[in-house]
Design goal:
Layout lengths: L1 E7 L3 H13 L6 E4 L4 H7 L5 H9 L2 E6 L15 H10 L4 E7 L12 H4 L3 E7 L11 E4 L9 E4 L6 H16 L4 E6 L5 H13 L7 E6 H10 L6 E4 L1 H12 L11 E3 L5 E3 L18 H13 L4 H16 L2 E2 L9 E2 L2 H14 L1
Parallel strand pairs: 1-2, 1-3, 3-12, 5-10, 8-9, 8-10, 13-14
Antiparallel strand pairs: 4-5, 4-11, 6-7, 11-12
Helix pairs in contact: 1-10, 1-12, 6-7, 8-9, 10-11, 11-12
The structure holds nicotinamide-adenine-dinucleotide (NAD), 3-isopropylmalic acid and magnesium ion.
Length: about 350
């Protein structure tokens, strides 16, 4: 089985290195090939998603991705910016279903900025549509306003759109995931204002007819953001569009103690996937050896479960992460008094050692 390793920028290489070490000790015969992506792709080949990198991602059985982006590339033309690499991979590989599980490990109850009783026992799954919405809608750009109150002035514009099959396929993924868990699905929209999301709500309601064993409710995105910090445990599975999912999943990350704890899987219709932490390249801490590698290590576990058919190995990695947290080891983002502060590599070491015991 072949895994494409795309470390990217900032903390990407530091955290991916630890996840690769974890995969290496599993005693499986994975073929791993590394390629540059994001700013690193731009530096090496003049493009954030070099042809060779895309080819490797396409032919591999799964992709392990770090993060892309750095402020120094923010002035480049948009097609050359590092973020286009991850957007291009999602689109080219048809990775329309993004699963972001927000789980609070009991040991981290005190690391969250929310009260322990609000978050303890948290286990929710955010399913974000990943290849449509305002992220990819055309037309977009900056132009002279053709009409309206600001006619003749410069304006920026994007297009929000969702086709019926796009909504149907992500709804099916969400209902099926809910069926395997608590059988409750919340569809998050902005149907009170946006045509696109009234349409979304109508289609999700229609798909629900095939999943009568799952309880469906609808919630506006502003309320969902509030409920996520007020009573997050009331959710089971959330399904939403690309942009709302981006925002809500970062909010949900803090329920788990840190964004450094939130893994993700981006899947196509056949469970081929790209696996990455939900966070970015964290340029503010890059190169300091303090980034939390656990979201990436847990993403590697999701890769084993969803794309490589190695559920037992995934369980082993998750058990090893739990063991390391129980030992009291913490990177600075999840550190609290009474625990032991470690860096990225020591955290990787600890997971590798725990694996040999599990
Ligand atoms: N999928 C991706 O590759 C991805 C995702 C999000 C942001 N980005 C890019 O990353 C760059 C930085 O964006 P940002 O600062 O808004 O978001 P970010 O997620 O990179 O960082 C936000 C904050 O969280 C902290 N953080 C993130 N990951 C951490 C980890 N593993 N351990 C400890 N702390 C961690 C950072 O230090 C920072 O303070 C931008 O160029 C952005 O476009 C890329
Ligand atoms: C880097 C950016 C394009 C990306 C997104 O907006 O999808 C990131 O924020 C994420 O959550 O994966
Ligand atoms: Mg994001």
């Amino acid at each position: 089985m072949k895994i494409a390793i795309l470390p990217g920028d900032g903390i990407g290489p530091e955290i991916v290195e630890q996840a690769v070490r974890v995969l290496d000790v599993l005693d499986e015969k994975f073929e791993m090939e590394t390629a540059p992506v994001g700013g690193a792709g731009y530096e090496a080949h003049g493009h954030p998603l070099p042809e060779g990198t895309l080819k490797l991602a396409k032919e591999a059985d799964a992709v392990l991705f770090g993060a892309v982006g750095d402020w120094k590339y923010d002035k480049l033309d948009r097609p050359l910016r590092p973020e286009q690499a991850i957007l291009g991979l999602r689109k080219n590989l048809n990775l329309f279903a993004n699963l972001r599980p927000a789980i609070l490990y009991p040991e981290l109850a005190g690391a969250s900025t929310l009260k322990p009783e609000v978050v303890s026992g948290l286990d929710i799954l955010i399913i974000r549509e990943l290849t449509g919405d305002i992220y990819f809608g055309q037309p977009r750009g900056v132009r002279t306003a053709p009409d309206g109150a600001f006619k003749g002035e410069r304006e920026g514009f994007d297009t929000m759109r969702y086709a019926e099959p796009e909504i149907r396929r992500i709804a099916h993924v969400a209902f099926q995931a809910a069926r395997k868990r608590g059988k409750r699905l919340t569809s998050v929209d902005k149907a009170n204002v946006l045509e696109t999301f009234q349409f979304w709500k109508d289609i999700v309601t229609d798909v629900h007819k095939e999943y009568q064993d799952v309880a469906l409710d609808h919630m506006y995105v502003d309320n969902a953001a509030m409920q996520l910090v007020r009573a997050p445990k009331k959710f089971d599975v959330i399904v939403t569009g690309n942009m709302f999912g981006d925002i809500l999943s970062d909010a949900a990350a803090m329920l788990t103690g840190s964004i450094g704890m939130l893994p993700s899987a981006s899947l196509d219709a056949n469970n081929k996937g790209l696996y990455e932490p939900s966070h970015g390249s964290a340029p503010d801490i890059a190169g300091k050896g303090v980034a939390n590698p656990l979201a990436t290590i847990l993403s590697a576990a999701m890769m084993l479960r969803f794309s490589l058919n190695k559920a037992e190995q995934a369980d082993r990695i998750e058990a090893a992460v739990k063991a390391v947290l129980a030992q009291g080891l913490r990177t600075p983002d999840i550190y609290e008094e009474g625990t032991t502060k470690v860096g990225t590599v020591e955290m990787g070491d600890a997971v590798v050692q725990a694996l040999s015991r599990h």
